[in-house]
Structure formats: structure tokens, C-alpha cells
Amino acid sequence: MFEWKREYETGIEIIDSQHKELFKIANRSYKLLKNDMVTDKYDRVVEIINELLDYCEYHFSTEEKFLIDIKYNKFISHKSQHEEFIKKLRSSNLNDIDDNQDEYLMDILNFFIKWISGHILSKDMDYVRFNNSIK
Ligand SMILES: [Fe+2]
């Protein structure tokens, strides 16, 4: 399971609730993947991972609107980080896996959570500081 930590909190309600939702969706996928009682689970796992990516894009657009609102001075580089991440994830062909499905899907989930938590702690916290400084 991917653990949500208090240090991920930005103090901005909508951002925090969307970040938490990303963890929730990733954990749904994780649990299903780890459940040996379920057969033929891969289509469902892929479906949830796609849902995760859709929600992530939705979250990025919310965040980018917020950054425009506060006139964030590093908006362009922040947005390009989002774009690169989505591009990378979208390029992994989830439906075209035969060997080591478990491992492949788990790698994607791990990559997702590692990137998003690192991004929150460094890049997102940077706009939080910016936002607090202009208040
Ligand atoms: Fe971000």
C-alpha cells in the first residue's frame, strides 16, 4: 500500500484532496494486483491505472489554473514537468503486456507514486511558499 503522509499536505484544500484521491486510486489498483484470489485481474488493473492517469491529468489542470490565478513565477517549468510525466506514462502500452504482468504493472504504480510524492515535496511545496509569500 502507498502511504499518504502529512508532509504531503500543501494546506490548499482542493489540491490536497486531489492528491489524496490519486493515492486512493493507486491503492485500489495495488490491492487488486496483490490479490491472488482474483483471476483475470489484469484488464481491471489496467482500467484502474488508466483511471489514475485521467484523474492525474484532471488534477494537473486544476493545479495549473490555481498557479495562473496566483501568478506563479515558475508556472511554465512546473507545467512542463506535468506534461513530461503524463507523456511518459501514456507512452507505456498497458494493454500490450504478456510476460511478468504483475511486475510490469507494479513498476508503473511504483513509478507513479514515487514521482508524484517527490513532485509534491519539491515542486508543489515551492508554489505553496510562493503563495504564502504573496498573501
Ligand atoms: Fe504539480
From TrEMBL:
It comes from the Bacteria. It holds the Pfam family Hemerythrin. The keyword Glycoprotein does not apply. GO terms for molecular function: metal ion binding. Residues 10-128 form the Hemerythrin-like domain. Keywords: Iron, Metal-binding. PANTHER family: BACTERIOHEMERYTHRIN. Belongs to the hemerythrin family. This is Bacteriohemerythrin. The lineage of its organism: Bacteria, Bacillati, Bacillota, Clostridia, Eubacteriales.
